[in-house]
Design goal:
Helix content: 10-25%
Largest sheet: 5 strands, mixed
Radius of gyration: 20 Å
Strand order of the largest sheet: 8-12-11-10-9
Order of helices and strands: HEEEEEEEEEEEEEEHEEEEEEEEHEEEEE
Strand content: 35-45%
CATH superfamily of one domain: TolB, C-terminal domain
Mean pLDDT: 93
Shape: globular
Number of helices: 3
CATH topology of one domain: Neuraminidase
Length: 386
């Protein structure tokens, strides 16, 4: 009996030690963030252009950013709500940024027919179809949805439909599937979408995070039938998704890594994903952006995860006792497996980076942040940050 008790004790100790083993590197205690790349950066600012979680490139020089000022006091992903009862909650917007001009221009797009309770998170663009898909986390509803917009003009998006499904419950990242065979007759593309947690209850989410439970997933929405099926399971906080017709990348935030999958598709039998590579990235990875032409993946995230969480959950983020949320954006040469830092910040200039992409024609890096005002544009090349 004593021998059995000994092994039970060891087993319990191992179970309790595992979260600390995983979370300590994620916390970033071992890291000192040295600012890098700021010298060639400028901030695009405008009243209301703040708390922009995601951005996608249109044609060269143009970005579309999903910005939600309500994140200052409410975040459905992290589970805090600091709004007073009956306090007005500002709606989010989609911004069109033109950084081909000097100075850059920022314009909130007109959203014809969009729901009033609009709080965008991830987004994905099919410029050929003129379709923008946006994850919406309404603050006054328990459901989370995908809003479909068509581009009427440079300044106007027309709301086409809302996609609500029981299997899209904690959506975070979204990536359209650029295979015409999976496009609906009315021109709506199919898409991949991550559920960052399995649980929707705040307390259970905290348990899922602390024990690094691999319960999150990625779903596939088939626009032809409106069906949603799981294609990836066993992820600890599935976050950003990016890819093309043959490849998909998924960031696993709580394990500081990115997974690469090949897509095997058949218009009659659906599709399957096969994992081919996992790359460790020394930060809590947020969104990722795949460049199939150059075979590079740009990843943004939080190199000191504990500082980020303390900052995000603080009621007064200007309090000197609250650590600043740090930033990091890296580029992964996928064939070579080589990581290169494009931007890093200690939180004093531009913290809490959530998305980064390189516009190679314009030779700039675009960075957005969950908690900063404005969007960052940094020159790249011999005179820039890479």
């Amino acid at each position: 009996m004593a021998g059995h008790s000994h092994w039970i004790f060891i087993g319990l100790l191992a179970v309790m030690a595992y979260p600390f083993y995983v979370n300590l590197p994620l916390a970033g205690f071992h890291r000192t963030i040295v600012p890098y790349g700021q010298q060639q950066c400028t901030k695009i600012t405008a009243p209301g252009l703040s708390y922009c979680e995601d951005a996608v490139q249109g044609k060269s020089g143009i970005a579309y950013a999903a910005c939600d000022p309500a994140r200052e006091k409410k975040n459905k992903v992290l589970g805090y709500d600091f709004f007073a009862q009956d306090e007005p909650i500002p709606s989010g917007k989609i911004w069109r940024l033109d950084y081909s001009k000097t100075p850059a221009e920022a314009m909130p797009m007109v959203l014809k027919g969009a729901p009033e309770d609009f709080h965008p998170l991830g987004l994905t663009l099919d410029e050929g179809l003129g379709v923008l898909l946006v994850i919406n986390l309404p603050v006054n509803q328990d459901v989370n949805v995908v809003e479909v917009f068509r581009m009427e003009s440079e300044a106007v998006l027309v709301h086409v439909k809302t996609i609500q499904h029981g299997s899209i419950y904690n959506p975070n990242g979204i990536q359209l599937f650029s295979n015409p065979a999976f496009t609906s007759p009315d021109g709506l593309p199919s898409f991949f979408i991550s559920n960052d947690h399995y649980f929707t209850n705040r307390a259970l989410k905290l348990i899922e995070n602390f024990f690094v439970l691999p319960m999150a997933n990625v779903m596939f929405y088939d626009a032809r039938s409106g069906s949603v099926t799981p294609v990836i399971k066993g992820i600890a906080f599935a976050n950003g998704v990016s890819g093309d017709h043959s490849m998909l990348f998924v960031s696993e935030t709580n394990r500081a890594q990115v997974h690469q999958y090949t897509i095997d598709s058949d218009s009659h039998h659906g599709l399957t994903l096969n994992r081919v590579r996992t790359t460790k990235v020394d930060m809590a990875v947020d969104n990722v952006e795949w460049d199939p032409k150059r075979q590079t993946l740009v990843a943004a995230g939080h190199p000191k995860g504990l500082d980020f969480m303390r900052f995000a959950m603080a009621r007064n983020r200007s309090d000197p006792a609250v650590p600043r949320a740090k930033s990091m954006v890296v580029s992964l040469d996928v064939p070579a497996g080589k990581l290169t830092c494009l931007f890093a910040d200690d939180g004093q200039y531009y913290g809490a980076s959530s998305t980064g992409y390189v516009d190679h024609q314009a030779k700039v890096l675009v960075v957005t942040s969950l908690y900063e005002d404005g969007v960052l544009v940094c020159k790249q090349g011999p005179e820039g940050g890479s």
